[in-house]
Amino acid sequence: MEESQVPPGPEPGQAPPDQEELQRRLEEQLRQVRVQDLLLESVASILNLSARRIAKQDERDLEQGRLGIDAVRAVLELLEPSQREQVREALSQVQMLYAREVQGGVDEAPERSGEPPPERPTEPAPEQPQPERPSRLWTPPGT
Fold first, then answer.
1. Domain boundaries, the chain
2. Contact assessment for residue 99 and residue 137, using Cβ atoms and an 8 Å cutoff
């Protein structure tokens, strides 16, 4: 709720508002709120929580992170065009974070981990062909 929407408190020397007055103020605020506003606030909260569930070791829950990503993708087209682009950027960042964590964090920058990156062979040895493994990179449904 914006600061301008917060109901004013009682004036000095006045009694606090009664139940009817509080109800009237609440009704007035509800008349001004748009579903679009609540949707944007919800999407922002979902993205923030998803990023937290993906990135914070002590709160790690990749399934919750994936669910948040899917939820935001499901409502993305319902947002106003100006909001949609900002949300797409944030969603993209959370998806990249998710992909990195699902892959085991191997792409973590050395300066962040304090350790040199593991050496990866540039191509497999001919006498030992690598078995095909399905990609562990999460991609949105329908793409």
1. 23-104
2. yes
